[in-house]
From TrEMBL, chain B:
Record has Hydrolase as a keyword: no
Domain Beta-ketoacyl-[acyl-carrier-protein] synthase III C-terminal: 253-340
Keywords: Acyltransferase, Transferase
Domain Beta-ketoacyl-[acyl-carrier-protein] synthase III N-terminal intervals: 114-191
UniProt-recorded name of the protein: 3-oxoacyl-ACP synthase
GO biological process terms on file: fatty acid biosynthetic process; secondary metabolite biosynthetic process
Length: 73, 353
């Protein structure tokens, strides 16, 4: 989980705070459609996992995103 | 599996034309704040595009490119036995634009002519069709024309597509010659994803009406378009590319007996620079072998591969070269080819007013 949070911090270029698994990542100031592209690439790169947009739309917290990735590895 | 291979057929010359009218993307701020526009442009790497002025069709760009190429190659027009026009922005619903172009270009009535309606995969699909006809032995020279006016397809008020697309037209001459050796193609389609990139209205399923031409807010971000504008689910298109393209790429590379080291140039469909850079990294390609034209012309759909060929490889194709072409998009439809060229004539890029 720590590695995952580190990855998200880097991908979303979060510089001013520490994020947690409970955070609702789509509410981050850094979140937008361009961040979405970066996230797709980094999840593919790191975990070799692709999450379809319909599933992704339902994810809210970083824990849910993490679990979704783990379920697809 | 749709795998094709051909012997001793190749592209002997290629030309491209773009409208002279240049759009500076950072100044394309009529509908969105400059700061937001800048963020998008830097991410997708599209700084300039060419928009055809009113009255200019994709066929006009192909016509200009074809005339230039015929002149540069000193080809006798009576020897052209096949003309295929690839586009999703034709002149008319009917007749086929290829047939109109046969006459405009002064080709004989012995010339076979038809259109292919596909998007970003279409240059490779078109090439495979031309090669198939040429392999039959009954054709002397073939002309593959590929044009798009994608600037007119998407809404300037939909931030998902407003900054991406541009116009262009190309012409390629294909001939038989023992110097070409083997070429390999792989063709695919997945209609279950047909709503990822789509224009709902204006065909026969949802005919054009005042309703389909009315602008509407279509999502919570406030993007505006009509039913006769194209739309795109960008994240799922990216997902599709990551799922399908690397495996198809590797399969064609392998079946053609090549490695990433033996190929001289990899020509990918130019959709956006972020995705293409990621693809190149994932496939571990030497970036000096991956020419890119996206910064100058944006996404020109099927035209993007040959437009990159002409605009980026002009003057670099002396002698024998091995190319790998890979097109993917609307359909979804994707196609990969490994072809050989030998002193391919590349005309200088034309600008049409």
């Amino acid at each position: 989980m720590e590695d995952f949070l580190q990855l998200i911090t880097e991908v979303l270029e979060i510089e001013d705070r520490t994020i947690t698994a409970e955070d609702h990542f789509k509410q981050f100031d850094e979140w937008d459609s361009l961040a979405r592209l970066s996230l797709i690439a980094s999840i593919d790169d790191q975990y070799n996992v692709i999450i379809d947009d319909q599933t992704f739309t339902k994810l809210e917290t970083l824990q849910q995103l993490y679990d979704e990735i783990q379920g697809r590895i | 599996m749709a795998k094709l291979s051909f012997t001793n057929i190749g592209v002997t010359g290629i030309a491209a034309a773009v409208p002279k009218n240049k759009i500076i993307n950072l100044e394309y701020t009529e509908n969105f704040p400059a700061e937001e526009v800048k963020d998008v442009i830097e991410k997708v790497g599209i700084y300039e595009r060419r928009f055809a002025p009113a009255g200019m069709c994709s066929s006009d760009l192909c016509f200009a490119a074809a005339n230039q190429l015929i002149s540069d190659m000193a080809i006798d027009r009576s020897e052209i036995d096949l003309l295929i026009f690839v586009s999703q922005t034709p002149d008319y619903r009917m007749p086929a634009t290829s047939v109109v172009l046969q006459h405009r270009l002064g080709l004989g009535t012995h010339c076979a002519a038809f259109d292919i309606n596909l998007g970003c995969s279409a240059f490779v699909y078109g090439l495979s069709t031309v090669f198939s006809f040429m392999q039959s032995g009954g054709f002397r020279k073939a002309l593959l024309l590929d044009g798009e006016t994608r600037s007119r397809v998407y809404s300037p008020k939909d931030r998902k597509t407003a900054f991406l697309f541009g116009d262009g037209g190309v012409a390629a001459v294909v001939e038989n010659d023992p110097k070409f050796g083997e070429s390999h193609f792989s063709l695919h389609s997945d209609g279950s994803l047909s709503d990822l990139i789509k224009m709902d209205a204006g065909g026969y399923r949802m005919p054009s009406s005042p309703e389909t031409l009315t602008e509407k807010v279509v999502d919570e971000q406030g993007n505006i378009r009509t039913d006769e504008h194209g739309y795109m689910n960008g994240p799922d298109v990216f997902n599709f590319v990551l799922k399908e393209i690397p495996s198809d790429f590797k399969q064609v590379l392998e079946s053609s007996g090549n490695t990433i080291e033996t190929i001289d140039y990899f020509l990918f469909h130019q959709a956006n620079d972020y995705m293409n850079s990621y693809l190149a990294k994932k496939l571990k390609l030497d970036l000096s072998k991956v020419p890119s034209s996206i910064a100058h012309f944006g996404n020109t759909s099927s035209v993007s591969i040959p437009l990159t060929w002409v605009s980026q490889l002009h003057g670099k194709l002396d002698g024998k070269k091995k190319l790998l072409l890979c097109g993917f998009g609307v359909g979804m439809s994707w196609a990969t080819a490994q072809i050989n060229i030998d002193n391919c004539l590349v005309s200088e890029l034309l600008e049409v007013e």
